[in-house]
Amino acid sequence: MASVWEARQHDPERTVAVKVLNEDITSRPKEVDAFYSEAKTAGSLVHPNIVSVFEVGYQSGCYYYVMELAAGYDTGKWLARKGRLAEADVLTVAESVGVALEFASKTLGVIHCDIKPANIMVDGDGMVRITDMGLARFRRTADNEYITGTPAYMSPEQASGATALDERSDIYSLGATIYHLLTGKELFSGTDDEVMECQRTKPAPDIRAANPDVSEACARLVARFLAKSPADRPQTWAEALAMIRAALANPDGRSVSGQKGQGRVAPALSAASSTAPASFWLYTALAAALAFAIAFAIARFW
Questions:
Q1: What is the spatial distance between Cα 237 and Cα 167, in angstroms, rounded to a whole number?
Q2: 109 in helix, strand or coil?
C-alpha cells in the first residue's frame, strides 16, 4: 500500500519517516481524499504510545505523509529473532496498544484497522508505540468501499467488507497479534483470500494447543478477543484493558505494568537486541578489566 523512507526535514531540523502511497492507491480519488482527511486528523493525536504524524501533502505525483521516526524495532522483528515472546512482555505491549487506541477512539472516534506486529514499535527505552495512525479510519464513517488491513489480523467484519467498524474490530486484531507473538504462528495460513475466508467463518484455534505455557487467564483473554461476533468480544477498550491487566496481575493482585500505558519492556529489549550468552559478556568484562589494569601499570611505570 505504501513505502516508507527515512528523510531529513529542514524546518524544523529533524530526521523523520516519510510514507509514500503506492500508485494503485493514488489512482483512486475517493481513497486519496480519505487518506488526506484521516492523516490530517490523525496528526492531532498526541499520545506517548502513538507515533506522531507531522504533515500530509502531495509533490511530484506522490501523496505522502511525514511522521516521527521511531527509533527501535517493531514486534514483528522481535518475534522473528526470538521465535515466540514471553507472556508478560506480550501483555505489557498489548496494554500500551490498548491505552493508545482507547485514547484515539475517545478523542476522535478513530479506529486503526491495521493492528499487527509490524505496526507496534518498541523504542530504545522499552516504550511501546503504534504506527500507521495516518491510515486509520473513523468509526463514524460508513461510506468506505474498500477493505483496508492485513488479512492475518483482520476481524471477521473487516474481512467481510463491513463499513460500520468500531473499536471491537481493533480488539480482534490485537487478539490476533497477541496469538502470533505468544505462539510464533499466525491464526490461519493460506493465500490472502483463504485467510480472509477463515477470519470470516473459522473459529480461532486454541492458543494453548500451540503454546501450553500460556496462562489460563491469558488464554481466556485471547479467546474472548477473537470471538467471531463483535457482541461476544469486550465492548470497549476499557473492558479489554481490564482483562489485559487482570491477566498481567501477580498472585497478590498487583499490576506488573505500573502506570497505565507506560509499561516498559526494557528487559525484553535487551534480550531482543542481543543473543550473546552470559559467558560472552563475562569474558568481555574480564578482558576490559585486564586491559585497564595493564594500562594503569604502564602509566605508573612511566
A1: 7
A2: coil
**Domains (range + CATH), the chain:** 2-68 (3.30.200.20), 73-264 (1.10.510.10)
Rounded CA gap, 71 and 123, in Å? 5
What is the pLDDT at residue 28?
A: 79
How many C-beta atoms surround the C-beta of residue 124 within 10 A?
12
Give me the percent of the chain exceeding a pLDDT of 70: 77
Q: Which of 86, 139, 90 is nearest to 112 (CA)?
A: 139
Look up residue 94 and give its three cell numbers: 498489548
* Number of Cβ within a 10 Å radius of residue 281: 11
Could you confirm whether 213 is annotated as catalytic?
Answer: no
C-alpha cell at 277: 550468552
Residues 6+ apart with CB under 8 A from 149: 113, 114, 158, 173
**114, 143, 170, 206: which one is catalytic?**
114
Report the candidate in 82, 279, 290 with the shortest Cα–Cα distance to residue 93. 82
Q: How far is CA 166 from CA 82, 141, 152, 163, in A?
A: 33, 10, 19, 9
Q: Record the pTM.
A: 0.78
